[in-house]
Amino acid sequence: MGILVAIEGLDGAGKNTIVGKFHTAAAGRSMTITSTAFPSYGSSVEADIAAEALHGEHGDLSESAYAMAMLFALDRRRWAQWLREARRDHDLVLCDRYVASNAAYSAARLGQGPDGAVVSWVADLEFERFGLPVPDHQLLLGVPPEIAMERAEGRAAVDAARARDAYERDADLQARVYRSYLDLVETEWVSPWTVADDDAAVHAILDLVP
User: Is the distance from CB of 185 to CB of 207 less than 8 angstroms?
Assistant: First the structure.
């Protein structure tokens, strides 16, 4: 039985890049590793509708924090069994974004803290009702909002397929989301957290693998 680790952070924090580093480092330690990313755009209707809403489609859907959170939660629900089996069969299972992202973004949008109603609702919905496994550990990439947004803007400038959505373009929201993530870290929301970046983050997590 391995461990399930959620990698969290703002858009542009480098989550995809660090997942690649994990795969390389784990191979060097002879660890078995697998990973997935949320939202699962292109393979989930819920994820695709959420993305379309954040690019101006579907009327006022994106104005509801709860509606958007529900779409992202329904997307993850499809993966519950896969995640349980992956943790059984691998030393390390990584999620590029997981349930904490729903909690952080929803709390930031509604101006609530880690003990607010929407954070409790997200946990109950995804872990209890949908049966998603609770992560053994969570990693927050400690990249400040201004740096993450600059990276996301640069990425969008060279890749039309990665145009920034309404969340990514909102500097104030990104700052509030980062604060929400730090609040979740401070309260050790659902499991222990590590705040780190780059190689330090990789080594910190790999050292947790039995």
Answer: no
* Residue-level pLDDT, tens digit, the chain, 210 residues: 899 999 999 988 999 999 999 999 999 999 999 999 999 999 999 999 999 999 999 999 999 999 999 999 999 999 999 999 999 999 999 999 999 999 999 999 999 999 999 999 999 999 999 999 999 999 999 988 889 888 777 666 666 556 678 888 888 999 999 999 999 999 999 999 999 988 999 999 999 998
Find out whether 118 and 106 touch, Cβ atoms under 8 Å: yes
| 41 in Cβ contact with 47 (< 8 Å) | yes
Domain ranges of the chain: 3-40+81-206
**CATH superfamily of the domain spanning 3-40+81-206:** P-loop containing nucleotide triphosphate hydrolases (3.40.50.300)
Please give the backbone phi and psi of residue 49, each rounded to the nearest 5 degrees, phi first. -65, -40
